[in-house]
Each structure stands twice: as structure tokens, then as C-alpha cells.
Automatic annotation (TrEMBL):
UniProt record similarity statement: Belongs to the paxM FAD-dependent monooxygenase family.
Keywords: FAD, Flavoprotein, Monooxygenase, Oxidoreductase
Name by which UniProt lists this protein: FAD-binding domain-containing protein
Domain annotation FAD-binding: ranges: 4-353
Signal peptide: none
A Pfam family matched in the record: FAD_binding_3
Transmembrane spans: none
Amino acid sequence: MSVGLAGLSTAVALARRGHSVLVLESTSELLHVGAGVALTSATRRWYESEGVLQPNEEACVALDGIELRNWATGDLITKTAANPVGKQNAIHHGDLQLALLSRAQTLPNIEIQMDARVVDIDIEATSITTSSGEQHTADLIVAADGIRSTIKPYVCPPEAAKAVPTNDAAYRFTLPRQLLELQSTSDDSSGADQDALLGLIQRPWASRWDGPGKHVVVYPIRNHQLLNIVLIHPDREDQAEESWTSMADKSHVTEDFRGWDPRLQKLIELAPQKVPNFRLFVHEVCPAWHKGHTVLLGDACHAMLPYLGQGVAQAVEDATALTTVLSLIESPSQIPLALQAFETSRKERVAEIQAATYQAQTKLHLKDAEAQRIRDDDRKAAGQQKQNSDVVQMQQQYWVWDAAEVAARVLRGLLV
Ligand SMILES: Cc1cc2nc3c(=O)[nH]c(=O)nc-3n(C[C@H](O)[C@H](O)[C@H](O)COP(=O)(O)OP(=O)(O)OC[C@H]3O[C@@H](n4cnc5c(N)ncnc54)[C@H](O)[C@@H]3O)c2cc1C
């Protein structure tokens, strides 16, 4: 396991149920990088129940809904309020990782070793070797080592372990509230409505602009003190790397979003000179999630496009399902059976969400102006009938899922 969100979530859940956990992380220190991540209402509740987030957590903003805007004019197309199931929560990736780390440090049965890159695994012996030559043997190895997983090729066919480019990349940055407040009192000739700009951070709403081949999502995080801005754009291979620390020159962002809503152009103007840029890769549905006593989870297993805000939710469902099946077995010899139940309970669900993220990509990035008009008219009509529209509906469709119940049911079926 590592200190990614999937690894730490699983470590905390297992340790709280009495297991001893060793976390091996390749980086030497936890860098507070990335930007906002979405937590579904169920994911937020799970983090509260595990003592990672507090009910009145200031790091999170519970969003009342999403406003969809015309990409060029900024005109409001429709507003979709949070559904009865609950609200989407927004948090900085780094804040959530720190909250997980703090929680892990309160649990005496978790040991975390930084600068411990796993370089080899012996599946038969359930042991791994780190770059310093240290060997560790355990009852179970959980590979939560992200999209470029070292362990995945040992568990499933190497061709299925390859990350696949999606031809999209994401510029991500945050702006402090103070900067936006300062901006609102200054003279400005950009054509951006200053109050509306400030409203983006003051109000608990997300906003999205879907344009040809691109889209932008903006929402407040950290108790409305930071504005999170994600600009999805076609991947230029020369520009972005598959790394959370890769940067693009601001001029590329300006160029890519020229002609968009003046508000967005203003936000880009306020961005730092170097903007984090990340090529979006995915894994195709993984044919095998476990081998012997080794199991894959999180992005190592099913990295997906972030367009339905399901990356963390699926990692947490993995953690829930895995801890459930491990709590129901009576001896380590039943671990392969438990892992089989884990895989069966998760595979179909994850494949369905992965497929939906591709549909969302198509819907968000329509290039033809007439197709965009029809889509946006449909959204407006849905809004007038108090219905959620397309991608929002798709997103919320996946919010209710009892990963523990499904995993337990599958395991009980295998045990008879
Ligand atoms: C630094 C960072 C910033 C991110 N920021 C955002 C964001 O702003 N918004 C967003 O939507 N998503 C972000 N993500 C992705 C998001 O966290 C994941 O999609 C999701 O949470 C599932 O995470 P994961 O733990 O499975 O994988 P990851 O988050 O990729 O974590 C994998 C971990 O494994 C470690 N690791 C890799 N190889 C080895 C090895 N051989 N030995 C030991 N350790 C290893 C990595 O250093 C990393 O800590 C970020 C990921 C990272 C790593």
C-alpha cells in the first residue's frame, strides 16, 4: 500500500478492524499537490465514519448543485440542485491526503515507510522488495500504487496493465479568495462581471462550461478560501506528462481557451505563470484483480476519466469491499476466496462507471454547434421540469451503492 488516497483509505479501514498494516510509499515526502477532488455524499460519510473527516469539516465544501453555462457567452443554461441522495463535496486532494495521514498516525497498527519504492514482487511467497533491497512478507499485499502500478503486470496480463492515453489533459490550478476579492475592487477591462467572478468562490455551487473538445469545471474548496479550476483540453503530447507535478506555460492555457466566457479568461489571467497540467490516462477494464494473496485497487486497478467525479468514490468502495470480505473469513487460507469475492463484487460496477465516463466525455465535448444547441436545449428543458440533465444525472446515478453488502453477499455465495 502507499500514501495515495486509495492506499491510505484502505490502510485506515483495515487497521480500524484490527489488522496490522505496513504502508510503503515511493516518494520521500508527501507533497501537497493537485487540486480539488469530488467526494460523493456517501464517500464523505464514509470518511466521517472512519474518523478521517469531521461532520463540520472545514476542508470540504458541500455543494448545493451545479450551474451549466454556455462556453462562449457564459449565459446560464440551467441550474441543477443536489439530488435527494445528498450533496457533492469538494476538497483539495492534498487536504484529504493530509487528513488521511493524520488519521493513520493515530492508529498504532499502521506503520508508514516513505522513500520505500516497491521494485519487485514474489506473488507465490506474498513478498515484495523495495529499492533499498528490503524484503517484506505478509498475509496480503494490497497494490494501491496508482496508474503506473509496478505490481499490476504481475497480477494481470501485462498488456492490460498499460495505461491508455485518452487524448485529453487537464490544467488544474487554484486561486485564493483574497486575490478574487482584490480583483473585484480593481478596474478591469476584460469584460468579466466582477461580482459573478467573486460569486464563483462565495456560493456553494459548481459551474461547468462544455465547449468543443474541451470543458471547464470550477468550484470552491477549503471553506470557500480557494477556487478550484480544472480545464480539460486536447492532449498535446509535447506539453504534458503523466505526472502530477508536470507544468504548462500559462500562454498555452490562454491560447486553448481564447474565445471562451470572459470570466474564464479572467481566471486564467489570474493563474500562476506555470499551470499544473496532467495527461489523462485510463486503464481498460482489468481482467484479473488478484493473484494468490495480492490484490489491486484504486487507480492501479481501474483508473478512469474524472468526468463523473468517481475516482475517490470508487477507491473508497474498493476499501469498503476489501475490508468487508477480510472481516468475514476465518483464516489466511481463505484470503484467495475473499479476494475473488472482492473482485466479483466490484468488477461490473466499475466497468459500468468507466463506460459512463466515456459517454460523458462525448457529451461534454460535442464539436458541432447544432449538436451543442440541441444538448443545451435538452438541459434547459430538463431543468424546467426539475429533472437533472444528462451528465449530472449520470453522475448521480452511481451515488447509491452498498459496497459492503454486495461484497458480503458474493462471499457468502462462495463460502457455501
Ligand atoms: C500527487 C497526486 C495528486 C493528485 N491530485 C488530484 C487532483 O487534484 N484531482 C483529482 O481528481 N485527482 C487527483 N489525483 C488522482 C486521485 O487521487 C486518484 O485518481 C484517486 O484518488 C485514486 O488514487 P490512488 O490512491 O489509487 O492512486 P494515486 O493517487 O495515484 O496514488 C498512488 C500512490 O502510490 C505511490 N506509488 C507509485 N508507485 C509506487 C511504488 N512502486 N512503490 C511504492 N509506492 C508507489 C505514489 O507515489 C502515490 O502516492 C492525484 C494523484 C496524485 C498521486
